[in-house]
Write a structure and sequence with these properties.
Layout: H1 3-11, E1 19-23, H2 31-48, E2 58-62, H3 64-74, H4 81-92, H5 111-125, H6 132-141, H7 144-152, E3 158-165, E4 171-177, E5 187-188, E6 191-195, H8 200-206, E7 216-220, E8 223-228, H9 239-243, E9 248-252, H10 276-287, H11 292-307, H12 311-314, E10 323-327, H13 333-340, H14 346-355, H15 363-368, H16 374-390, H17 392-398
Parallel strand pairs: 1-2, 1-9, 2-3, 4-6, 9-10
Antiparallel strand pairs: 3-4, 3-8, 5-6, 7-8
Length: 401
């Protein structure tokens, strides 16, 4: 979080308190966010003594977190029921609804055969997996018109999706409000924003995991650029919410509580170095290595500094305090994925198994991004609910006036 971002955000003077929800990326791991939000909805419903309006005004998402944000935005007019709708969506989701990989059974026999087969798929599509099933799933389940309706009816104020340009190397935030033309986009080193209606293409671009899913072209600055996963080069995940005027930010990540053992040394000989699965898991963790904690600490530090200023000085400064609450898994999602890796689609298990990418401690790390299967999803949702209830007092305080 740069000081420039905080100063610029401080100049934005909303007429009412704005709460933002920021959801980070991580493939199938983002099922964890569903559990956190489901528990939050139950808390707020109990506190209100019945149905309550939608609790966030600004929604910001990255990668698969962007898909969750878009779904919630499309159901925001339903109030807290939006989170239940999201949970129902995930309960019906399967890996075949997200991606496809067609490989013959014999590829598991030889690493050379597996490598050649995957190389051919990558040459044909520009990525290992075919994500056209996800295009169909998003068109069926996310109503862009419903997002516009939620904006028009003031259920939400803004929705923002992040993506990374392979063409220019710039990290973009695409924002949508009821009146996009009235807003000035922001420009920071390596980061830009633009106000425009969101499309399924924006969601596909934001969730295009490098090497696994193909890049998606988007129109920016009068020309087409190719975009990939918004987690890449994401140096300031809280910045969009602050630029859009948020006073309070709830951010839900899906990172590791710790990464010891993720490399996955073979059990029989540690001297042989990490397995291919360990290297692949480490590479994926590097792509999704969010700077969330550092960004949260920076925002909290600056806000604390502003709060310590004499009242007569802070009253005339054009800055505002921003409260940030971050929730991340308290257990290793890689370890949970290892217990469910056998549920990966057979074609994926053949291909990755043939390469040895599912062996060793890191195999679960790689699988955790691709396991859109009910047992793994439900395990993550349960963990999200557990972690949210463990911080119930903080969450309810966050929603106090």
């Amino acid at each position: 979080m740069s000081l420039g971002t905080i100063i610029h955000a401080g100049l934005v003077r909303p007429t009412r308190l704005l709460r933002a929800l920021v959801l980070m990326g991580g493939g199938a791991r983002t099922a964890y966010q569903v559990g956190v939000l489901q528990a939050l909805a139950a808390m707020l419903r109990l506190q209100a003594g019945g149905p309550a309006k939608f609790p966030f005004q600004v929604l910001v998402g990255t990668s698969a977190g962007a898909l969750n944000i878009a779904y919630i935005a499309s159901a925001a007019n339903r109030g807290l029921e939006a989170f239940g709708d999201l949970s129902l969506f995930w309960s019906k989701l399967r890996s075949r609804d997200v991606y496809d990989l067609d490989v013959p059974r014999w590829v598991r026999i030889s690493r050379i055969a597996a490598a050649l087969t995957l190389w051919r798929h990558t040459r044909q599509r520009g990525a290992l997996l075919d994500n056209m099933p996800l295009v169909d799933t998003l068109h069926r389940t996310i109503s862009l018109a419903a997002i516009d309706e939620a904006l028009a009816m003031k259920a939400i104020d803004a929705v923002a999706i992040t993506a990374s340009s392979y063409t220019s190397g710039v990290h973009w935030t695409f924002c949508h409000t009821e009146r996009d033309r009235k807003h000035e986009p922001w420009v920071r080193p390596g980061r830009r924003a633009e106000f425009q209606p969101l499309t399924i293409e924006h969601l596909m671009a934001s969730s295009a995991i490098p090497f696994l899913f193909p890049a998606t072209p988007l129109w920016v600055d009068g020309h087409a650029e190719y975009f990939g996963d918004g987690s890449m080069r994401q140096v300031s995940p809280l910045s969009p919410a602050m630029h859009l005027g948020a006073h309070k930010i709830l951010v839900v990540g899906v990172g590791q509580p710790q990464r010891s053992g993720i490399i996955g040394l073979p059990d029989n000989s540690a001297s042989r170095g990490p397995s291919l699965g360990g290297i692949a898991g480490h590479a994926m963790a590097s792509v999704f290595h969010d700077t969330l904690q550092a960004d949260v600490e920076q925002a909290q530090r600056v806000t604390k500094t502003l709060q310590q200023l004499p009242r007569e000085i802070s009253a005339v400064l054009p800055y505002r305090n921003v409260e940030v609450l971050a929730i991340q898994p308290t257990q290793s999602l890689d370890a949970i994925a290892t217990q469910h890796a056998q549920l990966l689609p057979k074609s994926v298990r053949r291909a990755l198994g043939g390469l040895g990418a599912l062996k060793g401690g890191g195999g679960g790390a790689l699988a955790s991004y691709l396991l859109f299967e009910p047992p793994f999803v439900q395990a993550l949702i349960s963990l999200g609910e557990q972690d949210a209830y463990a911080r119930k007092a903080e969450l309810l305080a966050f929603f106090s006036s």
